[in-house]
Design goal:
Blueprint (H helix, E strand, L loop, with lengths): L2 H11 L3 H17 L5 H19 L8 E2 L13 E2 L4 E2 L4 E2 L4 E3 L10 E2 L4 E2 L4 E4 L2 E2 L4 E2 L4 E4 L3 E2 L4 E2 L13 E4 L4 E4 L1
Parallel strand pairs: 1-3, 2-5, 3-6, 4-7, 5-8, 6-9, 7-10, 8-11, 9-12, 10-13, 13-14
Antiparallel strand pairs: 14-15
Helix pairs in contact: 1-2, 2-3
C-alpha cells in the first residue's frame, strides 16, 4: 500500500491530532525504509523519527515493522516499542507502553499478528508468537515464547500470562493463564 492510502485509513480511526501526528511519523519512516522516498526525504524522515517519535513521544517505531492500514495508536503511541521485522495486519489498535518484540537476539523470533488486533496498555508480546485475527490482549498481559499460537477471536485478560497455545474463540486469564472456551 502507498503512504497516502495507509494514512487515509489510519486517519479514519485516529481522530486526535497527537495520534495522527505519531502515526504519520511512523508511516513516513516506513516509506523511507522501503526506499520509496528520495535521499532528502529519507533524511527528513529520520529527523522526524528521532525528534518526534524517540525524544518527544518516547516510542520506538522502526519503519521496518510492517503494520497494515487502519493503525490506531491512542495516547499518541507513547512508550510503544516495536521490533524490526514485526508483521501486524490491518486495523490494529496498539495502546501506550506496549512492546511487540524479540524474545532473544535471533531476528526471526518476532511476533506475527493478524488483522483486527487489540493490544491493551503495558501489554507485551515477545518472541515467535503467532496471533490470529480479531484477537484481544488486555492491559498488562505478558506473552513471551518461542512458538506460542493464539487462535482467531481469542481473548487474553488483563495481567494474564499464558504458557500454552490458546485455541480460537477461547479466553485466557490468570498467572499462569487458565484457558476456557466461550
Amino acid at each position: 500500500m502507498t503512504l497516502r492510502t495507509n494514512l487515509r485509513e489510519d486517519f479514519k480511526v485516529n481522530t486526535r491530532a497527537l495520534d495522527r501526528l505519531t502515526v504519520t511519523a511512523y508511516r513516513i519512516n516506513q516509506a523511507a525504509t522501503r526506499g520509496r522516498l528520495r535521499i532528502v526525504k529519507k533524511v527528513a524522515a529520520k529527523v522526524i523519527d528521532v525528534i518526534w517519535l524517540q525524544l518527544v513521544i518516547g516510542a520506538d517505531l522502526p519503519g521496518t515493522a510492517n503494520i497494515g492500514p487502519g493503525l490506531r495508536m491512542p495516547h499518541g503511541g507513547r512508550g510503544v516499542t516495536l521490533t524490526p521485522g514485526l508483521t501486524v495486519g490491518a486495523n490494529a489498535t496498539i495502546y501506550h507502553r506496549t512492546t511487540l518484540g524479540r524474545f532473544t537476539g535471533d531476528k526471526s523470533n518476532v511476533p506475527t499478528i493478524g488483522d483486527d488486533f487489540y493490544l491493551g496498555a503495558a501489554a507485551q508480546v515477545m518472541g515467535r508468537v503467532t496471533v490470529g485475527d480479531a484477537v484481544r490482549i488486555g492491559a498488562g498481559a505478558q506473552i513471551a515464547s518461542l512458538g506460542l499460537s493464539i487462535g482467531d477471536g481469542a481473548r487474553i485478560a488483563a495481567g494474564a500470562v499464558p504458557f500454552e497455545d490458546i485455541p480460537a474463540r477461547h479466553n485466557a486469564s490468570g498467572n499462569p493463564a487458565v484457558i476456557k472456551s466461550r
